[in-house]
Amino acid sequence: MILGESIADSIARTGPITVAEFMSLCLHDPAAGYYATRPRLGETGDFITAPHISQMFGELLGLWAVEVWRRLGKPPSRLVELGPGDGALLADALRAARVAPRFLEACEITLVETSGPLRAVQEEWLAGSTTPIRWVDHWSQVPVDKPLIVLANEFLDCLPIHQAIYDDGRWRERCIGADAKGALAFVFRDGRPTNGHDVKEWSPAVEDCGRQIGAAVARAGGAALFIDYGRAEPGFGDTLQAVRRHSRESPLANPGLADLTAHVDFPAFLEAGRQGGAEATSVREQGHFLSALGIEHRATMLKRANPDCSDVVDHQLERLIGPDQMGALFKAACLHSSGLIPPGFESPPWS
Ligand code: SAH
To answer: Ligand 1: distance of its center to the CA of 201 in Å?
Structure first.
């Protein structure tokens, strides 16, 4: 049975489900969820992320990790990636980190990944790694035995969110139920169709991740870098979106066949991290963050080494940092232990 039908069946039996429950089923249902069964990243798949646009992205994050390690005093460390996708980011990061062989020797790698098919792809991409790699299912299973250097690109955006709509003088949770013809539809918990345009979102999962990773870096030392599309200021609005074959569609159209995400509420995430005991940086636009890490310089080096690819590198650079492309919509922020200043966040002129 396709996932949409089994969700409609269960709604018919037990009533509407929350947006968070719907997201979890669409992404992780063991038999038909998107990530559990058919994740398709990259040009020929459903969606593209920064590491697929250019190797520069993962390389700079690798150098970021080396610099965090250096600022920590070069201790034995645990390099963690949350939601590594097809492993491209980490492969680029580890290649760039070869400039510091002692970093690679000092690290163990832990990957947090729920998706069986993606774990298999990651194993393939990372087969050549000399640094030992282990996989866990959830961020709470990351060992907190030594300083942590955490990378997470487009991870928080696929954690489940709840939504509420302002209706008749109060906020009511937006749920998924059925319309008169039995098709999936947005409804209130009592089954009434939702109307009202003011939407607010919150995510216990994003906050739990912030609290736990925050507590871990506070306790063991280290820094956790989160890059995602989202808001730098608290705000309202419906940001739930489904993407299939590079086009947006209704989140209810093809459950399990599309990637489902929402904008990350960075202020709420960082506040949860502070509650966990960590310090938090400001929220910086991806373009400014990558410039602070020297992406323009890296692009110049790549162009010098491959003059034929000059236009391609310029195009990639523009996509990653252009304010009308990923540069402003995507944000970067860190949770870190006290006394550490994460690279790329040193001085305020970009904030
Ligand atoms: N970071 C990668 C991929 C982003 S796609 C990149 O930049 O290309 C999101 C990734 O997070 C996928 O690997 C997906 O399987 C994983 N993921 C989604 N929800 C998760 C969860 N709750 N726990 C662990 N991994 C999750």
So the answer is: 20
* Whether the CB of 51 sits within 6 Å of ligand 1: yes
Q: Taking CA 39 as the corner, what is the angle to CA 37 and CA 42, rounded to the nearest 5 degrees?
A: 160
pTM over 0.85, yes/no: yes
Q: What is the DSSP string of 308-334?
A: GGHHHHHHHHHHHH-TTTHHHHEEEEE
Rounded Cα–Cα distance for residues 143 and 135 (Å): 11
Stretch (H or E) spanning 201: strand 199-202
Of 158, 319, 117, give the one whose Cα is nearest residue 243. 158
Please report which residue ranges of 72-168 form alpha helices under DSSP H: 88-96, 101-106, 116-125
Provide the Cα torsion 256, 261, 262, 264; round to 10°: 140
Q: Using 70 as the pLDDT threshold, list the residues of the chain that sit under it.
A: 1, 348-351
Contact 296, 327 (CB under 8 A): no
pLDDT at residue 1, as a whole number? 59
In terms of CATH architecture, what is 33-161+203-336? 3-Layer(aba) Sandwich (3.40)
Distance between Cα 203 and ligand 1 center (Å): 16
